[in-house]
Fold this sequence. Notes:
Oligomer: single chain
Low-confidence stretches: 219-225
Strand content: under 5%
Radius of gyration: 33 Å
Largest sheet: none
Number of domains: 2
Amino acid sequence: MEESYVNFLSINQKCPLQKMPPVCDAVDVLPKVRAMALADRAMFDRGMRAFVSYVQAYAKHECSLIFRVKDLDFASLALGFALLRLPKMPELRGKTFPDFTETTLDTDAIRYKDKNREKQRQKMLAELKEKDRSSLPKKNFTKNKAWSKQKSKKERRKKKAAKRKHDEGSDVEDEDMKELLNDTRLLKKLKKGQISEEDFEKQITSGANHKTEAHTHDSLDEDDV
Length: 225
């Protein structure tokens, strides 16, 4: 498809091109470039940035009918830039490239030869790890806290239901069952992120207060009798 651009330049831009004969004695320097990328992160970064810039420029070309990103040979392009792995970018999302084999080495472990740049990178990595470490437990603690409260409440409700059944010889009241189902639905919404922990606590507390008031009212009625 790109060959159509030659005719386009000749006709529209008055810029004729001549085909060059293939170079038969070209030296394969790609292994050396890949080795350089493994030895210095600066070289690794240059290759990644060059690949991304090429793809983005290709996608924004004015002759989009000729230069179509979906027809671009990403595997050959990555090999040409001597990449060790493919970068994460929208144009590659959901695609697989069997013709391109990524390195089995951990590219995050590639260091800068420049000691100052490497020192800054290590500092940044440490800050990111600390940020992740401080945020994840908090999230898990919130869910575990909510789950513990819900579990404790269920156990108390079961004990009350068993006591009523023993004293009155009846099953769990419909009101208790509705409240149990409602609390279960609220917990599921909390786990899915559909409601905040504050909303969860508020709705759980309001339900418990409502039930306490109802029981108090019933007790007063019984005392009046």
